Amino acid sequence: MKNIYIFLIILIFPVQAVSAQKVDNIKIEKSGNLINIRYQIPKSTSSQVFRVTVLCSINGGVDEVLRSVSGDTGAYVEGGKSEYSVYWDVLKDKDEVKSAEFVVRVELISDNIVKPANTVTQKKVNETGFDKKRFNVLTTVAVQGPKYGVMFGFLGNWGIYLDIVMGPTTESPDADSNANPLTIPSFQVYSGTITKRILNKNAVQLHLALGIASSKFVFSEKINTTYKYSYESLIGPELGLVVGIKGGSLMLAYSQFDPLPVEEGTNLRYWSDLRLFTLGFGVRFGGSKQ
């Protein structure tokens, strides 16, 4: 009669798979007094190790772990097989079985994937190679003035650029309207900045620049009804952006100079425009497209 009961169990009660690890194609076969539970672990690899537990609810009771089992079960079941089998010797565990429902639980406990020796992992930050074009040469135009010049830069992840422009100094909107020098002198403006790349995508790179600029400016002093002019050196911060698009470069920069060190304690008042906007166009090179 025990054999008859086992045969009925196979036909009536399906096997369940309970685990975070998926189990497929579960089949039940009877071989004498043994029950063969066959299953598959999809997409498993030979470097993976699983813990497989087979439980059974017998005669409507709670799930209990089967003791008399062999085959692909236990704490060390290697992955990568096309199919697995667990054999349960029913008569060693139970004298009488009227109904049963099986549960297969599969847990991944190790996943030591070994890459082939000839596999090289590369971090592809930029597939075009334009981020390797780090040398920049630009023609620059500055307003006030206008002033004309050139910028040289080496712009990588971190970088530096130097810019020099030369041209006339323009009058500030805040200058005394009665103070009009006969000639407008030409002064060079020098600037140097540190750059940091903040965008690196395909053929486009964007750099933020922060540094200082230095130049001479025109100051005036009123003596009775006449004006005396002098030239004073000032420095100020410079903030800019440099954009690289393929082999070209674009620069935008702003400098602001502070006249207080000269004006404080004197009768001098600034005549020059103390703001400087710089625009540059040029090329970049130093690497090849990949």
Protein described:
There is one protein chain. This protein is mainly beta and 290 residues long. Helices cover 7% and strands 57% of the residues. It contains three helices and 18 strands. A hairpin with a 4-residue loop joins strand 4 and strand 5 (63-65).
Comma- or semicolon-separated keywords:
Immunoglobulin-like, about 290 residues, mainly beta, single chain, eight-stranded antiparallel barrel, 3 helices, 2 domains
Low-confidence runs of at least 5 consecutive residues: 10-15
**Morphology:** rod-shaped
* Biggest beta sheet attributes: 8 strands, antiparallel, barrel
CATH topology of the largest domain: Porin
Class from helix and strand fractions: mainly beta
- The count of domains is 2
Strand order of the largest sheet: 10-11-12-13-14-15-16-18
- How confident is the prediction overall: mean pLDDT? 84
The total of helices stands at: 3
Give the CA-CA distance, first to last residue. 77 Å
User: Over all CA atoms, what is the radius of gyration?
Assistant: 41 Å
Q: What is the class of the largest domain in the CATH system? A: Mainly Beta
Q: Helix and strand succession?
A: HEEEEEEEEHEEEEEEEEHEE
- Total beta-strand segments: 18
Strand content: over 45%
Amount of helix: under 10%
- CATH architecture annotation of the largest domain: Beta Barrel
